[in-house]
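tmp note - Antitoxin
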Amino acid sequence: MILDEYEQDLLDAIKGTDNFEQVDNFEEELLVAKMAAKNYLNKTKNINIRIAERDMLMLKRKSAKANIPYQTILSSLVHQFVEDKITLKI
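out:
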């Protein structure tokens, strides 16, 4: 993993110390850090795409049948593709 200068400075500072002191409000700080990490990893981006009208109608029909929003299905398909869990047949 490539670290920027600030991240490398933080890593060096951590490696350079032998003892840590726990803050008084450790549980609260831990919760804040966990929430920040979760929010960072769950960022979404709005996009506009063109889809054939027939495909969109079929997608909406299938999503209604599965009781899953069609946007969720599209997002899941994109995620599975970028994670190499599904491939395109060309």
